[in-house]
Amino acid sequence: MRFLFICLFALATGGFHLHAEVSVRTDFEGGNAEVILLEQNPVRIRIMPALHEGRGWPCWWSLRLEGLTAGQLVTLEVQAQTRPFRPEQILSATWCQPTRAAFSHDGREWRHTDPATKAEDKAFIYKVTAAAPVLHLAWGPPFVPADAARLLTTLEEKLAGTGSAACFELARTRGGRPVKGIRIGPPDSPRQAWVQARQHAWEAGGSWVGRGFIEWLAGDDPEAVEMRRTTCVHFIPIMDVDNAALGAGGKEALPQDHNRDWSATPVYPEVAAAQKSLKEIQARQGVDVFIDLHNPAAGDKAPFFFGPFGFESMSGLRRHNYQRWIELAAEHISGGLKVEPRYRFATYVKTDEERARMSSGWAREHLGEAAISVTLETAWNTPASTVEGYLEAGAGLARALARYLK
Question: pLDDT value at position 7?
């Protein structure tokens, strides 16, 4: 009886420190994880990227832990999804195991974890100390459709007094979600550029590079101000909005990969709308530059551009323009994510028919002889592959474009 009284008194006066159970949440935009193990004390979680049937590679993961205590150590183990994403195709663990994952205490400011260690069964182990009851953990810094909408609205409001910016809806996805963009510069300008990101939803770094690009263009640098006067830039921060919202990978999705859908009869409304818009711009003023923003494989430690097949044998204006572009890009994308000074070529795509269904191939075929069409692959698995590093690379990309279009 006395023991019961002591317990009740301790509870009433706060003498016992009771900890709420730690829980894992993924019910938010871009959230994705299949929890295999959750231990409470100490906190240890094992996950694999959840498989969304027909929605491409199971590589992206993003989760939120609740019920933590400041100072509590969290151990997160990440293994590959064990089920096939296509018949008899299981994705390699390298795509879901960054050397450094991303974490945030508030869902806004993202930092790298320390480098992972590898378990005997090849799972990657990340350790983070919680600073608050909530901890966000992700494959990389997330950039979801809500982030895109805020970015575009902020830029439109910032430039409202100049009349040089207008948000637009490119299309509605098959899932009914809006694919949003912004147009900066006079629509009837003789100089026209199209920049898009995230045809593959898991490649969040592409959207961060795009944000750095468009924020520089909307900024106060004299070259940016001049570019807004002479050039119209059409920018789409996320093309594969459906999969980005769901936290699915998107690459090799069914019935079609976004970047193999640039045919005469696209599956995705956003691809069809982009084609239509580009053709209309080409007919009116001509498109000078088409840039598609992606992330490459884990082993690629520096950004690079995929250039046109046959570049070495090109001559005349087209060769001159592509050469000038890579030289300017190498000069200006020069920070922690310094771009390679030479083009690579997508030799893994074996047929002309498939190459023509890629965005860059379609653009080369349908835009003018003087136009350049390139794909920027920004490395994601390096110490510099942070929000700050991506934004810096994007600003460098914008400076290169400003110089190119002079």
Answer: 36
Q: Could you identify the residue written with the tokens 């003789």? A: 190
The alpha carbon of residue 397 and the mean position of all alpha carbons in its chain are separated, in whole angstroms, by 16
Which residue bears the tokens 């959207």? Answer: 207
Contacts for 293 with CB less than 8 Å, ≥ 6 apart = 195, 196, 197, 198, 203, 206, 207, 209, 210, 375, 376, 378
Considering the chain, what percentage of its residues have pLDDT values greater than 90? 93
Residues 6 or more apart whose CB falls under 8 angstroms from that of 198 comprise 143, 204, 206, 207, 237, 238, 239, 240, 244, 293
d(Cα 322, Cα 336) in Å, to the nearest integer? 24
Considering its fold, how many domains does the chain have in total? Answer: 2
CATH number at residue 114: 2.60.40.3120
Of 144, 137, 146, 216, give the one whose Cα is nearest residue 184: 216
Segment 331-346, tens digit of pLDDT:
999 999 999 999 999 9
pLDDT digits (tens, 9 = 90+) for 190-206: 999 999 999 999 999 99
* Whole-prediction pTM: 0.94
